[in-house]
């Protein structure tokens, strides 16, 4: 499905990603046909935090949207890669634009069972001036509530 830099990013080959970037391959190189996914999106969905950070440091577009309507934020969040989501939030990730399923980053964050992780993501967004998200009809921001929807994903065993 992926090739080149995107494949290395998806597989978690940090040394290979660094080598290709050092050789001049653009951080947003797209080499996967119809999907139009960037290396950042591939690494984010696979949960490779160090590679996501490297790609962001090298100028990757945090808000690129692929041909199926998914961004690094929605890709990582759909996969339950909450530490990656937190990093993307700190780097300007768009949590408001819906993906192909009609969900946005805030919708996915509601699925995170780790209260501290959810609060850390929200704090990163608030530092950027993004208003707290609430469930429809709720009056409290996400981070202040303790109940979780049935079937919500865990925080990947995360405790922070």
UniProtKB/TrEMBL annotation:
The residue spans of each ANK repeat are 35-67, 68-100
What UniProt keywords apply to this chain's record, in alphabetical order? Answer: ANK repeat, Repeat
Which SUPFAM superfamilies does the record cross-reference, listed alphabetically? Answer: Ankyrin repeat
Q: Please list where the region (Disordered) is annotated.
A: 125-160
Q: Which domain of life is it from?
A: Bacteria
Which Pfam families does this entry report, sorted A to Z?
A: Ank_2
**InterPro entries according to UniProt:** Ankyrin_rpt (IPR002110), Ankyrin_rpt-contain_sf (IPR036770)
UniProt-listed SMART domains = ANK
Keyword Repeat on entry: yes
Would you tell me the protein name for this molecule? Answer: Ankyrin repeat domain-containing protein
